[in-house]
Amino acid sequence: MDEFRKHSVEFYDNMLLDGAKLAPEEKLFSYKGVLYPATICCAETLTALETFEARRDDVILTGYPKTGTHWLDKILNNVVDIGAKYTEEEKNKRIDIENELAMPPRLEFVHADKLKMMEKLPSRRIIVTHLTPDTLPKSIFKNKAKVSSQILYTSLQDTL
């Protein structure tokens, strides 16, 4: 199992263990009227996102959970890797930062202190999120980052 996948599995295992310890009323928290899962994101991160600085060449992939976001993220990363002429140093830097993040850049899953680390990722950053447009960092729209809202039609049973 590659290092990235190992980090992802560890992240989700810890999330499930943490969730099992919480009382039902502690598993969700409200931020600006929207409920979020307390085991994978926190109000501190959502507050820090208000100052997150998007770049003009960022690609922001948005979509509802369980609708193929991860699958589309992998395809998009492969397309960018093939098309971009990254040096070996740039590739290694990206891999090191993503391993430190322990997850691919997902805006709402990254702890507030790690948002600064995301800013160090070399361009073109592909940032995936399940946040709604009104909760995305304002800099995404101000700096005219490329936003792709995906709607993949899957079985209704998969998303419930």
Look up the CATH topology: Rossmann fold
Succession of helices and strands: HEEHEHHHEHEH
Q: Describe the oligomeric state of these chains in a short phrase.
A: single chain
Q: Summarize the main sheet.
A: 3 strands, parallel
Identify the CATH class: Alpha Beta
Radius of gyration: 16 Å
Overall SS class: alpha/beta
First-residue to last-residue Cα separation: 30 Å
Q: How many discrete structural domains?
A: 1
Poorly predicted ranges: none
Tell me the strand percentage band. Answer: 5-15%
CATH superfamily: P-loop containing nucleotide triphosphate hydrolases
**Shape, principal axes of CA atoms:** globular
User: Order of strands in the sheet with the most strands?
Assistant: 4-3-5
Report the strand count: 5
Mean model confidence by pLDDT: 80
Helix content: 40-55%
Which architecture does the CATH hierarchy give at level 2?
A: 3-Layer(aba) Sandwich
How many distinct helices? 7
Protein model, in words:
By secondary structure, this protein is an alpha/beta fold. The protein has a single domain (3-159), classed as 3-Layer(aba) Sandwich (Rossmann fold). It contains 7 helices and 5 strands, in the order αββαβαααβαβα. A hairpin with a 2-residue loop joins strand 1 and strand 2. The longest helix has 19 residues, at 3-21.
